[in-house]
Amino acid sequence: MNIARVDYDGLIPNNVALGQDVRVKRALEKWHPGYLNWWNDMGPDGFQESLVYLRTAVSVESKGWAVFDYIRMPEYRWGILLAPAVEGRVVPFGAHKGEPAWQEVPGEYRAMLRRLIVIQGDTEPASVEQQRHLGKTAPSLYDMRNLFQVNVEEGRHLWAMVYLLHKYFGTDGRDEAEGLLQRRSGDVDTPRMLGAFNEKTPDWLSFFMFTFFVDRDGKLQLEAQAQSGFDPLSRTCRFMLTEEAHHMFVGETGIGRTVQRTCEAMVQAGINDPDNIDAVRRLGVIDLPTIQKKLNLHYSLALDLFGSEVSTNAANAFNAGLKGRFQEHRLKDDHQLQNDVYPVLKLIDGEIRRVDEPALTALNMRLRDDYTNDCNKGVTRWNKIIEAAGIKFELALPHVAFHRHIGEFREVQATPTGEMLDEAAWAKKKDDFLPSDADGDFITGLMRPVVEPGKFASWIAAPKVGIDNKPGDFEYVKIV
Ligand SMILES: [Fe+2]
Ligand SMILES: [Fe+2]
Q1: DSSP conformation class of 230
Q2: Are strands 66-72 and 51-57 parallel, antiparallel or unpaired?
Q3: 156 C-alpha vs ligand 1 centroid, how far in Å?
Q4: Alpha-carbon distance 137 to 474, whole Å?
Q5: Quick one: which ligand is closest to 155's CA?
Q6: CB-based contacts of 227: which residues, under 8 Å, 6+ apart?
Q7: Where are the alpha helices (H) located in 169-230, listed in sequence order?
Q8: Ligand 2 center to residue 254 CA distance, Å?
Q9: Residue 119 in contact with residue 161, Cβ under 8 Å?
Q10: Contact predicate 248/271, CB 8 Å
Q11: Which residues crowd ion ligand 2, with CB under 5 Å?
């Protein structure tokens, strides 16, 4: 069969010859109604009948893999798509480096692999739940469509992980697949597994921050798992990364357009001082210091997703050949790291110091550093927008010790520039660093829906180009 082509004949589109795999096909068909119930209960609130101009994957080739059309979201063709197999692929790192990549789960690593897949899987529906009410306050039809595109694809990513669970993990896999539909973001009794996925996404700036920072954590995790010696996981993640690029784009351009609109309004009104917050807010745009606070919040929450800087779990997953480093295949070393070190920021006697740790246990730190580099590219682009407007203000990522709940700095407080604070000073200054209730209320007040094609809310600029090269006044969502 042609692996690049996706079979759309059956109930579940796929390129894994599901028709010939009766057991897994039945298991997925049984899981399907529960998924649809979850989508109807927890997916976008209020737009399930609307026609949304969405892309659907029809191939796994790097070029021309998607088609665009108007679809009702519950009718989206969620499918199972693996990137093409690489002939002769070997385990690229760890103790099994050079052995043929595994097509079945290696028995000794079964529990570890299952946990990796379940944690990844849990994040996918969580973000849909977090974003479910945002359609009602979309700043334009263009943005609304992007939100729904991200949502249906996170749904597909859940399918991707559920396929692996059903195909390779028997009864436990089936139970885990059920669990993925049962946990709920923010629920007191059955929350999602990771902190950032239980936070609220109360407004559209939060959504853009989420897709920029938290989806980017997803990108880094997928990159690390795309290196996996367990070939089905590698191929699954490789294709998910193709979709994930759009989520990153939505976040980066969403924040960029917000920054741009603020700068335009300031210039037009002759306001030079970015700290003149009241005057800027009266223009119906979000002041730059508040955007910085939102950035502080979302970046620090995202850093927590990488886990402890020093971690034996990370070392074990690498040694086992299950989870590699960011772009492992491009790194020039022995890919086993038994004798290497990596610098880690640690808290020693109340001071932040860089110390060398064994590279294997420092893998979370390393992935987090790659993540920070990736984030900084976006920050640089936003700062160019501010600079071009002639406004003296620079956005910056906060220090790693700022507002952390996991890892070395979880028990201390620090400013965004990394100066340590005692609890009293932190309590006093917290609202200067993180969005306050008043900031939240102001942003919420701006979130009025704009549903006329080609029109945008006061606080955000129009995009430079449309989706699928559509003109500016294209009706991306036909609201029913
Ligand atoms: Fe995803
Ligand atoms: Fe995503």
Answers
A1: B
A2: antiparallel
A3: 8
A4: 19
A5: 1
A6: 92, 93, 234, 323, 324, 325, 328, 329
A7: 170-182, 204-209, 215-226
A8: 15
A9: no
A10: no
A11: 215, 244, 247
User: For residue 445, is pLDDT > 50?
Assistant: yes
187 alpha carbon to ligand 2 midpoint, in Å?
21
Query: pLDDT tens digit string along 296-318?
Result: 999 999 999 999 999 999 999 99
Residue 177: partners with Cβ closer than 8 Å, 6 or more residues away: 31, 162, 165, 166
**Digit-coded pLDDT (tens) for 45-71:** 999 999 999 999 888 777 778 899 999
Closest ligand, as measured to the CA of 123? 1
Contact 252, 381 (CB under 8 A): yes
Quote the CA–CA distance of 474 and 111 in Å, as a whole number. Answer: 49
What ligand has the least distance to the C-alpha of 125?
Answer: 1
Ligand nearest to the CA of 247: 2
The ligand whose atoms approach the alpha carbon of 239 most closely is: 1
Q: Which of 354, 456, 350, 367 is nearest to 413 (CA)?
A: 350
pLDDT in tens, 135-181: 999 999 999 999 999 999 999 999 999 999 999 999 999 999 999 99
Q: Rounded to an integer, what distance in angstroms lies between the CA atom of residue 397 and that of residue 299?
A: 7
Confidence of residue 1 (pLDDT cuts 50, 70, 90): very low
pTM listed for this prediction:
0.96
User: Coil, strand, or helix at residue 408?
Assistant: coil
Query: Long-range contacts: 463-469, Cβ < 8 Å, 24+?
Result: 463/142, 463/253, 463/257, 466/142, 467/53, 467/68, 467/142, 467/145, 467/146, 468/53, 468/55, 468/68
Ligand 2 mean position, distance from CA 405 (Å): 23
Tokens of 469: 């090269």
**Nearest ligand to residue 213 Cα:** 2
Q: Decide if 317 contacts 310 (C-beta within 8 A).
A: no
CA 245–ligand 2 middle distance (angstroms) = 8
Ligand that lies nearest to the alpha carbon of residue 154, given by its number in the listed order:
1
Q: How far is the CA of 153 from the centre of ligand 1 (A)?
A: 7
